[in-house]
Amino acid sequence: MNSPPLPSLLGVFAHPDDESLLAGGVLAQHHAAGARTGVVTATWAPSSRRAPELAAALAVLGAGPLRLLGYGDARNPESAPGESRLVDAPLDEAIGRLVAHIREFRPEVVVTHDALGQLTGHADHVRTHQITVLAVEAAGLEPLYPEAGTPWQPSALYAATHSEAGVGRLGALLERVGKSVLTVPDAYVTTTVDVSPWAGVKWAAILAHQGEVARERPLPGILARLPEVERKEIISTEFFTRLTPGPVAGNPSRLLA
Fold first, then answer.
1. To 5 degrees, how large is the angle CA 147–CA 109–CA 89?
2. Is a pLDDT exceeding 50 seen at residue 11?
3. Out of 195, 198, 224, 231, which residue is the most buried by the measure of CB atoms under 10 Å away?
4. Secondary structure in 3-state letters for the chain
């Protein structure tokens, strides 16, 4: 029996490279199956140095054009000169910007960061999670943000995450460069996806973020210095928690609407 088609998928992540590191495999998987895929990035301006790298990564993944909220990175003033940092932006404003993207793209599934802020607890990751949870609900309610387009309600929201067991050797690699490692309980993971068939595409998308690959502490740079076998092991599994309607057991090997 043939599996049902994969749903359209919109990733919402804080920084350029988050999309490739956290959900590059499922984005490539859905694109290869003919599903519409896209990514909204909360920080860094279209004129910034990281925007061309992000555009290249999205092209590798088949995730369409740049979709940027345009806010500044909490730790990098050059990311969006003259704009508010994401963590300082009015919540209602940020939600409205994301609602407009959701209503325009009309995804069946949305994927974002988990509530912990993705292993390292970056403030932009946490804020992106909060904005996305609220925007997914608001997008389907006609009285909210009427200027943002025709209402659209995604069927499911997932948080990309890492469990205590699933973090594997990645945890030690992050700790070695002085980063924290925040994980969720194993039972909190509802969907584990083997993305090894798309690991090559995922790695090519990560490599597109050349500025981060060249540095020692960011994860792309850490991965680039590993032996290929070890790197592939790390990037070949992606973990998610279904947040709507709450963390419930779902299909263990794919994202479902």
1. 45
2. yes
3. 198
4. CCCCCCCCEEEEECCCCHHHHHHHHHHHHHHHCCCCEEEEEEECCCCCCCHHHHHHHHHHHCCCCCCEEEEEECCEHHHCCCCCEHHHCCHHHHHHHHHHHHHHHCCCEEEEECCCCCECCCHHHHHHHHHHHHHHHHHCCCCCCHHHCCCCCCCEEEEEECECCCCCCHHHHHHHCCCCCECECHHHCCEEEECHHHHHHHHHHHHCCHHHHCCCCCHHHHHHCCCHHHHHHHHCEEEEEECCCCCCCCCCCCCCC
Is the distance from CB of 45 to CB of 51 less than 8 angstroms?
A: yes
Q: Considering only CA atoms, which of 174, 50, 70 is closest in space to residue 121?
A: 174
**Dihedral of the alpha carbons of 71, 74, 77, 80, in degrees to the nearest 10:** -10
Give me the sheet containing 237-242, strands edge to edge.
68-71, 37-43, 9-13, 109-113, 156-161, 237-242, 191-194
Higher pLDDT, 69 or 245: 69
Stronger pLDDT, 3 or 101, i.e. the higher one = 101
pLDDT of 180 above 90: no
Contacts of 83 (CB under 8 A, 6+ apart): 45, 70, 71, 72
Instruction: Check whether 209 has a pLDDT greater than 90.
Output: yes
- The answer to whether 252 touches 216, Cβ cutoff 8 Å, is no
